[in-house]
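Ligand: D-xylulose. Inputs:
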Amino acid sequence: MAEYFKDVKEIKYEGPKSDNPLAFKYYNPDELVGNKTMREHLKFSVAYWHTFTAQGTDPFGAGTMIRSWDHIQDPMDKAKVRMEAAFEFFDKLGVDYFCFHDRDIAPEGETLAETNKNLDEIVKIAKQLMEDYDIKLLWGTANTFNNPRFVHGAATSCNADVFAYTAAQIKKAMDVTKELGGEGYTFWGGREGYETLLNTDMKLELDNYARLLHMAVDYAKQIGFDGQFYIEPKPKEPTKHQYDFDAAAVVAFLKTYGLDDYFKLNIETNHATLAGHTMQHELMYARINNMLGSVDANQGDLYLGWDTDQFPTDIYLTTLVMYEVLQAGGFTTGGLNFDAKVRRPSFEPIDLFYAHIVGMDSFAKGLKIAYKMKQDGKFEKIIADRYASYTEGIGKDIIEGKVGFSELERYALENNEIKNVSGRQEYLEWLLNEYILGK
Ligand code: XUL
Ligand code: CO
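Predicted complex:
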């Protein structure tokens, strides 16, 4: 097999003193953090679409990426070579997982049947490479947003033919995910939303979205696919308003339609930011609803209002993400998928390595800090103390449902002195700094 990234050898752990940007300083895959190795805690995955399919286009300019398969004209030949290159990349980087959309890995044909045939051919190659390199599929998904047929949405399109096409495409993507032993399957509703309410039957669209998800649940049972289903919230972009707005909206939607037993959330940092939340907020909301499933690891730009999908380098962010993941008991089926792309001017193949290495090291460092925070239990104790009034007296009666308005009125009328204590935010930020900066 040809070598596609000739300038790069296997990326190794060299420790914090190393100044080699093609080595890990913090990610030491077999190092134990508690009773799990870093590799088991972090479950890194590469996103096929950004790293292998995308060419660096933006709304104002053409692709810039230089890739060793650029010269190949035939789309199927290109897809095959790209797949081989991808596995060489996963292997050299030392990740155990990847994620893909059906259309990232194989080109569309003239008809759905031809498209499915193309997909089958590439999946066969992927399956063999997965075995050869011992790489697993974190999750699969269907791209039901790019083709112009999805102009009005996919499951939420006003056009029933598009709904049918969407169902057929997702059915196939689930087959393929099962075939490759995928640990999960993600639904990201890129165009499941609206541009204007003046032409939108919101009730029908939401009902139809739920109908499609129920069909997916039924089909998973039918074929014996036991991977985890995820919904990935995002408030907008490409659609003006997307129904899977944020974790809270998705949890409410799943509960409303009786789907909550079958889905968890795949939370993405830049989507949280677009919804006006911190990533920690989104993760915590999912966690307290037992729905924290997987993470699309990236970060946005403070000065840009769109989904920039940058590689995560902010240690405050990676620490707080891993703190929530540890609080949730760690990943089971999910992991950290780098849904991130190199900047358009970072067009050389080596930039793909620099980008993933800094992302992996940032998360490894974040894991270690978060583990120490959790082990020390200082933040948990501060929170427990803050709510101590609910562990005794009237607070306990409220929690246990022993009192109603009348009893509480009697209590309040007699309790003429309410005492509050400081929330200590600045102290807590100092404490977080203590962990992040280290002694
Ligand atoms: C888009 C996005 C998607 C999903 C998978 O913003 O995050 O790539 O992760 O469809
Ligand atoms: Co994503």
